[in-house]
């Protein structure tokens, strides 16, 4: 491998790592949903990897198609910008809806007191009508949330990938194109997975007590913040 390709591979790895770490939308939604929906670590990792691969496929396909057709890759950057905006607003919409649903669920799960009189005595007890039923119901059904996040990640681009492909494409080096694509994709997915795994493991030990019923609302808020960060801060 030539020094140029080595430098290109190192650049792709570095940019992929920094891009992923600085983009909370690459890991925060998975961490929040894993905590809210009590996903196992293995399920969380599988969903993260699937979404990470989906996140890359669109940009990889677009870049390779552009190279095959002889299109100037710089002309495809505007399309990636459009996809980025679309993914950000989809995250915002999903975050808003999930937050609203989470707040409603938390309200219905709020503990309240009932008074009972029998055998000449009166006593009260505190409970929530949805506390046990809701958890059993949620655990037994197939959630659409992972699929929604997966679709959003497919629509969202890996913005740095197209500029990275420009140099090897201009040099007409298919090895360089494949190298950049492979290294960038591997580092991106690996970084997402490691961050999600470490933080999810830590969060799994955190107990919120009476605020546990707000888990879904917190998850929706985290996703909403991610969408707003991408849309308005360009993170």
Structure description:
This protein has 235 residues and is mainly alpha-helical. It has one domain (11-16, 23-109, 128-233). 72% of the residues lie in helices and 6% in strands. The chain has helices at 3-22, 28-36, 41-69, 77-108, 131-140, 145-155, 161-170, 174-203, 215-233; strands spanning 112-118, 121-127. A two-stranded antiparallel ribbon has the order 1-2. The longest helix is centred in the middle third of the chain and has 32 residues, at 77-108. The chain is elongated and about 90 Å long.
Q: Strand order within the widest sheet?
A: 1-2
Q: Output the number of helix runs.
A: 9
Q: How many E strands?
A: 2
Q: What share of residues is helical?
A: over 70%
Q: What summary fits the major beta sheet? A: 2 strands, antiparallel
Put the structure in a nutshell:
The chain is mostly helical and 235 residues long. The protein has helices at 3-22, 28-36, 41-69, 77-108, 131-140, 145-155, 161-170, 174-203, 215-233, and strands at 112-118, 121-127.
Protein traits:
single chain; 235 residues; mainly alpha; two-stranded antiparallel sheet; 9 helices; elongated
Layout: helices, strands, pairs:
Elements: H1 3-22, H2 28-36, H3 41-69, H4 77-108, E1 112-118, E2 121-127, H5 131-140, H6 145-155, H7 161-170, H8 174-203, H9 215-233
Antiparallel strand pairs: 1-2
